[in-house]
From TrEMBL:
<keyword id="KW-0611">Plant defense</keyword>
<dbReference type="Pfam" id="PF25019">
    <property type="entry name" value="LRR_R13L1-DRL21"/>
</dbReference>
<feature type="domain" description="NB-ARC">
    <location>
        <begin position="30"/>
        <end position="202"/>
    </location>
</feature>
<dbReference type="InterPro" id="IPR042197">
    <property type="entry name" value="Apaf_helical"/>
</dbReference>
<dbReference type="Pfam" id="PF00931">
    <property type="entry name" value="NB-ARC"/>
</dbReference>
<dbReference type="GO" id="GO:0006952">
    <property type="term" value="P:defense response"/>
</dbReference>
<protein>
    <submittedName>
        <fullName>Disease resistance RPP13-like protein 1</fullName>
    </submittedName>
</protein>
<dbReference type="InterPro" id="IPR056789">
    <property type="entry name" value="LRR_R13L1-DRL21"/>
</dbReference>
<dbReference type="InterPro" id="IPR027417">
    <property type="entry name" value="P-loop_NTPase"/>
</dbReference>
<dbReference type="Pfam" id="PF23559">
    <property type="entry name" value="WHD_DRP"/>
</dbReference>
<dbReference type="InterPro" id="IPR058922">
    <property type="entry name" value="WHD_DRP"/>
</dbReference>
<dbReference type="InterPro" id="IPR032675">
    <property type="entry name" value="LRR_dom_sf"/>
</dbReference>
<dbReference type="InterPro" id="IPR036388">
    <property type="entry name" value="WH-like_DNA-bd_sf"/>
</dbReference>
<dbReference type="InterPro" id="IPR002182">
    <property type="entry name" value="NB-ARC"/>
</dbReference>
<feature type="domain" description="R13L1/DRL21-like LRR repeat region">
    <location>
        <begin position="536"/>
        <end position="660"/>
    </location>
</feature>
<feature type="domain" description="Disease resistance protein winged helix">
    <location>
        <begin position="287"/>
        <end position="352"/>
    </location>
</feature>
<dbReference type="GO" id="GO:0043531">
    <property type="term" value="F:ADP binding"/>
</dbReference>
Length: 1099
């Protein structure tokens, strides 16, 4: 087909297994769970130096389920700082494991690295000092380098880190030097409980003793394998006929040998009893690789393209029924990771491949003459390499790709086998197709075409010759600016996905002739005089539309009558509708014609989600209040609307977002709808409410004094943002409110207490000066303030005070910034469960107090508290403290005493601009300390040369331009041999780096030097051989010596593989990748703070 594939190594699909498990589906594993958890929590796993534990057992016995149960246990959750779940499947690829660990540790996508060594550097940074649990699920084979790899990971992590492996093979456990836990067959009684749950409608077999007798015998044939029990139970679930149960019991399939196939007889039986139409659909799934997550809607469209669906109703409805039937038989399982994803167990995947024979494959090497369905997930050189194998398949019907590295098309005579395809999917290619050849128009039988991806910029006109095409997917084609003019000729097209095609200017002409169309994700209204596009009236002819529809550029609708011709009111199967005009900057003034257009774009009353954007009318039409099935409503940037539509009476509305309605001044009784004369609670189903950027909103009148308690009775999340004129109070009582955020509401007044929000757990208040936090009702004086509150952020609220006469018993995360001016001493004992605190800019704060026992806190940050002078007398007793940061505390003179005793878990210590701190305590440093940052602490740096630094791995040290006492580095300071990363900053008089100080740094990987204007000399003996990256910035004298790559100083650094000077790469790999770092974010957003109580990200 003119296909070229770039070689980038094997690409891997999404994993099957996840860390989640449904407890209701597990029986008889309590003792196994206890034993595995005990091994994970043990400080010394029976002397096993690598701390690897393996759950060993045959396929279908429940290894993954047991691992999931242990992984999600609350004790395991609290014991480990970091948990990672990775499904290995048939091939153990170490870079994929490394990537997964980095992403789990940082909650960020892992960058692409050109050098595998970069992975290890970043990996070490993110595991160092952390007690982690890594689950490697479904490991098939192990090599010596795998054991070394796992040992290296454990060496990076803190003592007590564990790796849990699940495998069918004892040899894997042995090769990894793992402690094995052999999972035995499920006991008879537990098998029966599981069988009952799946085989009987009410989960019990009490109805028919004969059925129970036969069921017991059938269950025994499953031989204690949970997967077999579930499969055969689901097969019998809808059967009440004794003869049918007897036939299954006596089936010869129970006697077929498993040797060589590993296919359970119960699974064979389950397949054997499928209707013929389901057998074809199931066998087709053999093209999916093991561990692949697939979506219901996509698979139904593939079945439809292959002609498997007989249109008793619509083909899509038939396909959905087929799919649900396979789910009910446990051949498909819903992924617990996503709502729309489904998976097949490995053994079920084996069954599909067995019954499909040579017709389907997910491997290029297995393509033969009879192959009809191919799903490839690898990269193989050029198109010629693939072409030869594809030519073997004389009856090829499906060609799917899964994450190819790159594919390019060019004009070429396509092989005849390609011409007969029904399905061609190139939509998951990493570097996607940029254009299709004109010759694609020769694929007369093609029914499914997916070329989604950001690179495609052109569709050839010849695509309009594909008269049998049913599905065309162009999602995320960011560069695509037009569709072929004659698309109306695709008379069998049923699904056209063009969402996220932001450069698409208009729809082609005569779109209304596509009368089979069911999915049209976007319709762009053309100007009436353009002659090249479709008017909105074409939508009226598409009577079968369903799902979601975005209508853009509605300002191009010529008249109110044209809007009526769209016939949205007749489209009963549309669930989600977005009506979007162009930004109002392009439309001058209030447009009453837009009011008429919107009036006639009334959708069917069954619509579930409605969004209106950039509407230029002054008011909303009445029909919005009549959408009785509506569950989601968004009104964005309708800036001339002066009143909100009546919504409170809508019975199913659970999410409401109103943003940028600058004409709204009052929100009054009309907002609550027709509730005053009925027993209906206004907004009785609403769970999420966001009111944002309402620049002229002044008053919020609530729904009658007598009925206030009944309003918003189900509301869980409330956000009020940038409403600077809003006055008055919040709703008096929100009984289920869980999360409250108020931002930039300078005139809003509220007294926030347990009376108003009895179950509130998360609160964020920013730049809202009139909010007076925390008046407490007398009747609740013993309950404590907002007794459920776990996370609290107050930022720049001048009148907001935190009362210190009661306990905050549930609070876990606290962030105070530029508030609480009356606070002089912070009593830590009032916060018994606090795990993360940052106090920033509390100008009168002088001390932290602790009178009770040990704290559970893991992070403390004191920033810009200029009068802060002291820690608790006798030391800060916080055995779980991991991160300790002090910034701009200009009056502070000393650190807490006895840090080595009271802060044994401390790993990260940072002092910035604390000029009066002279030294660390005389005792030892905390034993687990890994990273120290000291910047602009003049007295401390002057005395640091007297200190013996601990075995840290990261040191960042810097002064300011006035520092004149440091002429050489490290001088008398003895740097530890464990040092891996060294950053030297802003020493104004530094002239040289000492050879004696660097020679013993055999672990040093990265050296950065910044802002040392007089630095001239590198160490005489050169830099350590271990050094991989050198960065020099704002060091003009040294830069001059190095930039020519000549001379004595260059010879000292030339062996360093990667060198950057003033952000310019001088030598080696792309420095942006090499220096990519997941450091702790000191400007942490509030949402990120919610994770602080779980674990802290450290280098």
């Amino acid at each position: 087909m003119g296909l070229q594939v770039g070689v980038k190594g094997k690409q891997y699909p999404e994993r099957l297994t996840t860390s989640y498990v449904r407890e209701s589906d597990t029986f008889g594993r309590d003792e196994d769970k206890k034993k595995v958890i005990d091994l994970l929590l043990s400080s010394d796993a029976s002397g096993n130096e690598m701390c690897v534990i393996a759950i060993v057992g045959m396929g279908g016995i429940g290894k993954t389920t047991l691992a999931q149960q242990a992984y999600n246990d609350s004790r395991v959750e609290q014991h480990f700082n970091l948990k990672i779940w990775f499904c290995v499947s048939e091939e153990f690829v170490m870079p994929m494991v490394e990537k997964s660990i980095i992403e789990a540790a940082t909650s960020s996508p892992c960058p692409k690295f050109e050098n595998p060594e970069q992975f290890r550097v970043i990996l070490k940074k993110n595991l160092t000092g952390k007690k982690f649990l890594l689950v490697l699920d479904d490991v098939w084979r192990a090599k010596p380098d795998h054991r070394e790899f796992l040992g290296q990971l454990l060496e990076y992590g803190a003592r007590g880190s564990k790796i849990l492996v699940t495998t069918r093979n004892k040899s894997v456990a042995s090769a990894m030097h793992a402690i094995p836990h052999h999972l035995e067959l499920l006991p008879k009684d537990d098998c029966w409980s599981l069988f009952e749950k799946h085989a009987f409608r009410n989960g019990s077999s009490n109805a028919d003793p004969k059925i129970k007798e036969i069921g017991t015998k059938i269950m025994e044939k499953c031989k204690g394998l949970p997967l077999a029990v579930k499969a055969i139970g689901d097969l019998l679930w809808s059967e009440s006929n004794v003869e049918r149960w007897t036939n299954i019991l006596k089936s010869n399939l129970w006697d077929l040998p498993m040797e060589g196939t590993y296919i359970l007889p119960a699974l064979r039986l389950s397949y054997n009893y499928l209707p013929s139409y389901l057998k074809r659909c199931f066998a087709y799934c053999s093209i999916f690789p093991k561990d692949h997550i697939f979506e219901k809607d996509q698979l139904v469209l593939l079945w439809m393209a292959e002609g498997f669906l007989q249109p008793i109703e619509t083909m899509e409805q038939v396909g959905n029924c087929y799919f649900d039937d396979l789910v009910s038989r446990s051949l498909f399982q819903q992924s617990l990771e996503t709502n729309s994803g489904f998976v097949m167990h490995d053994l079920v995947n084996d069954l599909a491949k067995s019954v499909s024979g040579q017709f389907g494959t997910d491997s290029l090497k297995k393509i033969v003459k009879m192959t009809r369905y191919v799903h490839l997930c690898e990269s193989w050189g050029t198109f010629q390499d693939i072409k030869e194998d594809l030519l073997k398949a004389k009856q090829l019907r499906t060609f799917l790709t899964l994450r190819f590295s790159s594919v390019r098309f060019w004009e070429n005579k396509m092989p005849r086998t390609i011409l007969c395809l029904r399905v061609l999917s190139l939509g998951r290619i990493e570097y996607s197709v940029n254009k299709l050849p004109d010759s694609i128009g020769e694929m007369k039988y093609l029914r499914y075409l997916d070329v989604s991806g950001p690179q495609l910029y052109r569709l050839p006109d010849s695509i309009c010759n594909l008269c049998n095409l049913q599905t065309l997917k162009l999602s995320s084609c960011l560069m695509l600016d037009r569709l072929p003019r004659d698309m109306w000729k695709l008379i069998n097209l049923r699904h056209l996905e063009i969402d996220q095609t932001y450069h698409l200017k208009e729809m082609p002409i005569k779109m209304g002739r596509l009368n089979c169309l069911q999915t049209l994700t976007k319709f762009i209204v053309s100007k009436h005089d353009s002659g090249s596009g479709s008017s909105i009236g074409e939508l009226g002819k598409l009577i079968n539309l369903r799902g979601k529809l975005l209508i853009e550029k509605i300002q191009n609708v010529r008249s109110v009558e044209d809007a009526f011709d769209a016939s949205l009111k007749d489209k009963a199967y549309l669930e989600k509708l977005v009506l979007e005009w162009s930004p109002l900057e392009e439309v001058l003034g209030i447009s009453e014609s837009q009011r008429g257009v919107l009036e006639n774009l009334q959708p069917h009353e069954k619509l579930k989600s409605l969004t209106i954007v950039y509407y230029g009318g002054k008011g909303f039409p009445d029909w919005i209040g009549g959408l009785t099935s509506l569950s989601e409503l968004k009104l964005f940037d309708c800036k001339y609307c002066s009143a909100l539509p009546p919504l409170g009476h809508l019975p199913f509305l659970n999410q409401l977002e109103i943003k940028g309605l600058h004409g709204v001044v009052n929100v009054g009784p009309e907002f609550y709808g027709n509730c005053s004369n009925s027993s209906m609670k206004p907004f009785g189903s609403l769970k999420f409410l966001r009111l944002k950027n309402l620049s002229n909103w002044e008053n919020w009148f609530y729904f009658g004094v007598q009925n206030e308690v009944e309003t918003f009775s189900q509301l869980e999340e409330l956000y009020i943002e940038n409403c600077p004129k809003l006055r008055g109070m919040l709703p008096v009582y929100l009984p289920l409110l869980d999360k409250l955020e108020i931002l930039d509401c300078q005139h809003l007044k509220a007294s926030l207490s347990i009376d108003s929000f009895p179950v509130l757990t998360r609160m964020k208040i920013i730049r809202s000066d009139n909010l007076e936090f925390l008046a407490l009702a007398k009747q609740h004086k013993h309950d404590g303030l907002l007794s459920k509150l776990k996370i609290l952020l107050i930022d720049d609220c001048k009148k907001c005070e935190l009362p210190m006469h009661q306990q905050f018993s549930s609070l876990e995360v606290l962030f105070l910034k530029d508030c609480c001016d009356s606070l002089t001493s912070f009593p830590l004992d009032l916060f018994p469960n606090l795990k993360c605190i940052r106090i920033d800019g509390c100008r009168n704060l002088q001390s932290l107090e602790q009178r009770g026992g040990d704290l559970v806190i893991s992070e403390i940050g004191i920033w810009r508290c200029f009068n802060f002078v002291s820690f608790p007398k006798g030391g800060l007793r916080a055995p779980n403290l991991v991160m300790f940061t002090l910034k701009n505390c200009e009056s502070l003179r000393s650190m807490p005493c006895k840090m080595h005793l009271f802060l044994p878990s401390l790993r990260y210590l940072e002092l910035v601009n604390c000029p009066e701190v002279e030294s660390f305590p005389e005792e030892e440093f905390p034993s687990n300390l890994k990273k120290i940052i000291i910047l602009t602490c003049k007295k401390l740096i002057a005395n640091l040369w007297k200190e013996i630094l601990p075995r840290i791995e990261w040191l960042e040290i810097g002064g300011d331009e006035s520092e004149d006492h440091v002429e050489s580095f490290p001088g008398e300071l003895l740097l530890p041999t464990t040092l891996t990363y060294l950053h030297i900053k802003s020493f104004g008089n530094l002239k040289s780096l000492d050879k004696e100080g660097f020679q013993h740094l055999t672990s040093l990987v990265e050296l950065q030097i910044y802002g040392c204007p007089f630095l001239m000399y590198m160490p005489e003996e050169g830099l350590p051989a271990s050094l991989r990256f050198l960065s020099i910035k704002n060091c003009p004298v040294l830069k001059k010596k190095l930039r020519s790559k000549k001379g004595k100083e260059w010879l000292k650094v030339t062996r360093v593989p990667n060198i950057v000077i003033d952000d310019r790469l001088i030598q080696g790999y792309r420095w942006q990748d090499w220096t990519f770092r997941y450091e702790y974010d000191h400007d942490l957003k509030f949402e990120q703070l919610t994770n602080c109580s779980r674990s802290v990200k450290l280098i």
